[in-house]
Design brief:
The chain has 358 residues and is of the alpha/beta class. It has twelve helices and 14 strands. It has a domain of 129 residues: Ribokinase (UDP-N-acetylmuramoyl-L-alanine:D-glutamate ligase), CATH 3.40.1190.
Amino acid sequence: MKHLHIDPGRFRYQAMIGTGGIGTGRFFRANGNRTLGREESRSGRFLKRKDYCKLHIVSHYVQTLLGPSFRTIPIGMVGGDYAGKDLREEMAEAGMDMRSVTTLRGAETLFSFCVVYPDGSGGNLTTDDSASSRVDRDLIDGALKSFERYRGKGIALAVPEVPLDARLRLLEHGRAHDFFCAGSFTSREIESVLSGRVLGMVDLLALNLDEARMVGGAGEDEQAVKSAVEALGRFNPNILVTVTAGRNGSWAWDGGLSYRPAVRTRTVSTAGAGDAFLAGVLAGLTAGLGLPDAQELGTLIASLSVTSPHTIHKSIDREALSDFARREGAGLSENVASLLRGEDREADGAADGSGAGS
């Protein structure tokens, strides 16, 4: 595995401690594009695609891109079933520190059943009584020694598919230990996020375009992003924001707004692309990039991820990204290009010093 080429001694952060869903799923391709009715029976077939959940996806790319000198510590629960055993083995094989992932006997691992229509649209059903639903403040508190070990040198990551209260506890520990705190939330959680103290604990908020519209109101894509940034700034004037819009690219705010188009390529599945983007941003910031360049790295990783049927593209590394950028004619900044071609060149434009851990 070819890691991003930078001296680990120059990493801005040394570890990422995160909580979120750890699970799996299956994809079922329904025959016909008409939305499945409540009492309808429809034929179709299972697809040879492997689904993973958010914490696993983000953690995988961060760990494999930054290499063994960086410590990724997921906090979560899996069931005492074959799925949980397999996921633990895959995560350990990628290099993650698994001491804070608990196997809960008698519970099932988080599972999603994804229905895909021939036109590429679809939806999914996800279990709400899985081991991931049992992640609580006590489990987060159990990783306190890891927070203390990396005080001032870590990333705290809070992503969906575990209870919001547990994620808030992780952000509390991150803030108390001078970590750079990053989070994403579902559309249903946005109202709670805006009405509470969450935004004061987050240095980087990752949104998709629909979530941005929930924050700032309706409008054309870029106007919706600007409105969301303005609304978020009233809660936290130093917050960094990324907004993804699938094939329409992404925006990032660090005091100024930057836009990056998606790399046009053959798309097999878009599932997991937003999580791949966030992983690229976090890896880029760790490697010393400023937010616009980290956004560019995230865009490249997300664009390559959609060429795989699985929600983790396990062949992505520095060399694969470099070849992909060259093959697809993706224009890269010098800072990103140097990370990919193996030059240990100091990146310019450190991220805005907002929040802890900067």
